[in-house]
């Protein structure tokens, strides 16, 4: 038994049990009933055709004209959760909601066959709005006042901390300016000392050369006097 349809991959997991076959058949019936419905758009037509092919294929073994009967008579079952899953599957264009409902029913069936209680799933309910009592109103107002007071204290602490940080910044800025002035003064003193030392070194060097020149001059004068012949 083969069904040649590209969308069979979406319905494949549903074709593994007789229970799933019945689920597919009832989906196809409902699709057929609501074929002209306004909320079945063009995007759902391919899925509809796929399910009709599945229905036609499986009716050969499980159809109403067959000697076999369906394991479950769906016309006698009113499952609101299944109806919601069916509607969601149409709107979303996927069989995921039906798969989830099928899995839930399989789990329930297994638990009942083992003698266990049904697994109750609490559905999310919208919160109920009811009038507050006088005591609850007083508690709410007190809580709001406490929240406001806490917010005021937080803002005061924030401003105090901000002012403290600003004072610290100003102090550090003054210290920085003082250190910059001290640095500039030290640079100036170092420059003056370097100039004085350089002048002193230059003076010492010139004096030394002067002394050496005088010594050389005296030496040359002495040797020149001794080397001259005496006149008589």
TrEMBL record:
Lineage: Eukaryota, Metazoa, Spiralia, Lophotrochozoa, Mollusca
Coiled-coil ranges from the UniProt annotation: 155-203
Pfam family, one: bZIP_1
SUPFAM superfamilies named among the record's database cross-references: Leucine zipper domain
SMART domains: BRLZ (SM00338)
Protein's UniProt name: BZIP domain-containing protein
Keywords in alphabetical order: Coiled coil
InterPro entries xref list: bZIP, bZIP_sf
BZIP domain: residues covered: 137-200
Keyword Coiled coil included in the entry's annotation: yes
């Amino acid at each position: 038994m083969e069904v040649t349809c590209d969308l069979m991959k979406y319905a494949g997991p549903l074709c593994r049990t007789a229970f799933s076959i019945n689920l597919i058949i009832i989906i196809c019936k409902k699709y057929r009933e609501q074929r002209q419905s306004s909320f079945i758009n063009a995007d759902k037509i391919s899925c509809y055709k796929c399910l009709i092919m599945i229905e036609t294929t499986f009716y050969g073994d499980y159809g109403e004209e067959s000697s076999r009967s369906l394991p479950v008579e769906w016309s006698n079952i009113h499952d609101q959760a299944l109806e919601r899953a069916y509607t969601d599957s149409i709107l979303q264009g996927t069989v995921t909601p039906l798969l989830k409902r099928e899995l839930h029913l399989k789990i329930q069936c297994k638990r009942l066959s083992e003698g266990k209680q049904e697994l109750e799933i609490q559905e999310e309910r919208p919160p109920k709005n009811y009038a507050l009592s006088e005591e609850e109103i007083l508690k709410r107002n007190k809580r709001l006042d406490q929240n406001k007071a806490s917010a005021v204290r937080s803002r005061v602490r924030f401003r105090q901390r901000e002012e403290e940080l600003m004072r610290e910044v100003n102090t550090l800025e003054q210290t920085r300016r003082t250190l910059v002035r001290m640095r500039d003064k030290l640079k100036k003193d170092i420059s003056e000392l370097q100039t004085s030392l350089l002048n002193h070194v230059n003076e010492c060097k010139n004096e030394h050369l002067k002394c050496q020149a005088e010594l050389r001059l005296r030496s040359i004068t002495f040797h020149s006097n001794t080397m001259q012949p005496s006149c008589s």
